[in-house]
UniProtKB/TrEMBL annotation:
Residues 1-26 form the signal peptide. Keywords: Glycoprotein, Glycosyltransferase, Membrane, Signal, Signal-anchor, Transferase, Transmembrane, Transmembrane helix. Belongs to the glycosyltransferase 8 family. GO terms for cellular component: Golgi apparatus; pollen tube. This is Hexosyltransferase. Pathway: Glycan metabolism; pectin biosynthesis. It is an enzyme of class 2 (transferase). Coiled coil: none annotated. Its EC number is 2.4.1.-. Gene3D superfamilies: Spore Coat Polysaccharide Biosynthesis Protein SpsA, Chain A. It is a single-pass type II membrane protein. It is found in: Endomembrane system.
Length: 347
């Protein structure tokens, strides 16, 4: 105490000088830095190891999964990764590739602390690449540049990666993802569940169907709706076929003519609908987020399920927090690793 009493005037003087000379620099005298309120904390997930039947250290057995990384959806991303690892026979073979529009070290540190053994890489996505190409859609969330990053997978991923599974952040996988990875692409560039019973014309405006040249777009194809939140992409064929440029051309035309109302989905449909490898519907039980306009709850479709997808307006973590849940949200809850910042500070 005597020593502190002798030194305290000097410390106070030093603190005042720092404030005057460096007003934007904080002084840490044994204080604990509060965590960012924008990025939540998560419990550490258990380690998942390969079974005896799995081979390790062989790149040919790697399964590459690409997802976007965004502070607003990080809770969903963590749940999705957890579900993938938990249901994988060979979890150590999963290689994750996260596309991020912002350099946020705290995002990356959350992944490291939650999944200490996760094999992942992050890739910066330059939002300016699409900012001038995006047209306003029915929901502001669909207009975020990061939603368009999937178009540039072939440019962002290393050239030695020839196939990747792209997944949205609002889903959980309840089956071994290796089953989807092993699909026979049959020389197609994309594999995904197709929904041919959907009214395909509703995804586009009269400006497309009434134009004699544009309406020929699907000639020779049987176009069906598919959801771009779950896709197996042959990135090697995507590169060689110049599909990024093909999608961008439709986005540029959309800026001149209002051809559709949804964000990044319609240009994918214009380029690829009717020319993809169809996989079982069990791999995308989509629409669980509810009606895009009213947010109404959706029921599960009959049949087996391998992937649950909360596409639509409502996200399960938001509804769980507000205690206004849909029944299907309780299927997502077991994968939620969220830990509030308050409980973190109390530990």
């Amino acid at each position: 105490m005597a020593l502190w009493g002798a030194l305290s005037p000097h410390l106070l003087l030093l603190g005042l000088m720092c404030i005057l000379l460096y007003p934007n620099v904080g002084i840490r005298l044994g204080s604990v830095r509060r965590p960012s309120p924008d990025i939540p904390f998560f419990r550490e997930a258990p380690a998942f190891r390969n079974g005896d039947q799995c081979s390790s250290g062989n790149n040919t057995d790697d399964i590459h999964v690409a997802m976007t990384l965004d502070a607003n959806y990080i809770r969903g991303t963590m749940a999705a990764v957890f579900s993938l690892l938990q249901h994988s026979t060979c979890p150590e073979n999963l290689k994750f590739h996260f596309l991020s529009a912002h350099v946020a070290p705290e995002l990356f540190s959350r992944i490291n602390s939650t999944f200490p053994y996760l094999d992942f890489k992050t890739y910066p996505f330059d939002s300016n690449r699409v900012r001038g190409k995006i047209s306003r859609s029915i929901r502001r969330a669909l207009d975020q540049p990061i939603n368009y990053a999937r178009i540039y997978l072939a440019d962002l991923l290393p050239s030695d990666i020839r196939r990747v599974i792209y997944l949205d952040s609002d889903l959980v996988v309840v089956d071994d993802i290796a089953k989807l990875w092993g699909v026979d692409m049959e020389d197609k560039v994309v594999a995904a569940p197709e929904y041919c019973q959907a009214n395909f014309t509703q995804y586009f405006t009269d400006a497309l169907w009434s134009d004699p040249d544009l309406s020929k777009t699907f000639r020779g194809r049987n176009p069906c709706y598919f959801n771009t939140g779950v896709m197996v992409v042959d990135v090697d064929k995507w590169r060689k076929g110049g599909y990024t440029q093909k999608v961008e051309e439709w986005m540029a035309l959309q800026k001149r003519k209002r051809l559709y109302h949804l964000g990044s989905l319609p240009p994918f449909l214009l380029v690829l609908a009717g020319n993809i490898k169809a996989v079982d519907h069990r791999w995308n039980q989509h629409g669980l987020g509810g009606d895009n306009f009213e947010g109404k709850c959706r029921r599960l479709h009959p049949g087996p399920i391998s992937l649950l997808h909360w596409s639509g307006k409502g996200k399960p973590w938001l509804r769980l927090d507000s205690r206004r849940t849909c029944t299907v949200d309780h299927l997502w809850a077991p994968y939620d690793l969220y830990q509030s910042s308050r409980s973190f500070l109390e530990e």
